[in-house]
UniProtKB/TrEMBL annotation:
Residues 1-46 are annotated as: Disordered. InterPro entries: NikA-like. This is Ribbon-helix-helix protein, copG family.
Length: 162
């Protein structure tokens, strides 16, 4: 019975970086794919080109030096180490601009209305229920939403006090 417990524990997957010499047969314990923990990329996302991981041990002083060197270069530690190892220039990420939360809220509200109307129009058209008058009303509502969105965005593009 003791040997079966040992065999079962040896067959379990180990976390990356663990000091165990056991071969990893599958995903880490507790990380299996399930509806609440899917093992796939986000919808529409392109899987990363980077599929492999490298782990190494260093002292806390060395880690602090690496972290500081990466911060000085404006890179993550992994990007800096990858650049040093390969000599390739890192891909620069664009910093997301700061946006007024009120603008985001207003645009998302109108965007939701726009999506609902477009969905209704597409469904009604496919089912043959959309009369020309209803379609014109919906089109007018869409134009109104588009104009209001343009006004909101234009207000937020103007410098304060104008």
């Amino acid at each position: 019975m003791v040997t079966s417990n040992i065999k079962q524990s040896e067959q379990r997957a180990r976390r990356p970086g663990s000091r165990s010499s056991t071969v990893e047969p599958g995903p880490c314990e507790g990380r299996q794919a399930s509806p609440s923990n899917p093992n796939r990329t986000a919808r529409g996302a392109v899987p990363s080109e980077k599929q492999e991981a490298v782990f190494f041990y260093c002292s806390s002083e060395e880690k602090a030096l690496i972290r500081q060197a990466a911060a000085d270069r404006g890179l993550s530690m992994s990007a800096m180490l990858r650049q040093l190892a390969t000599g390739a220039a890192p891909k620069r990420r664009r910093v997301a601009p700061r946006v007024d939360p009120a603008l985001v809220l207003a645009v998302s509200r109108y965007g939701g209305n726009l999506n609902q109307i477009a969905r209704w129009l597409n469904t009604a058209t496919r089912a043959g229920r959309a009369s020309e008058i209803e379609a014109l009303r919906v089109a007018a509502a869409l134009v109104g939403i588009e104009r209001r969105l343009a006004e909101i965005i234009a207000q937020h593009r103007r410098p304060p006090g104008c």
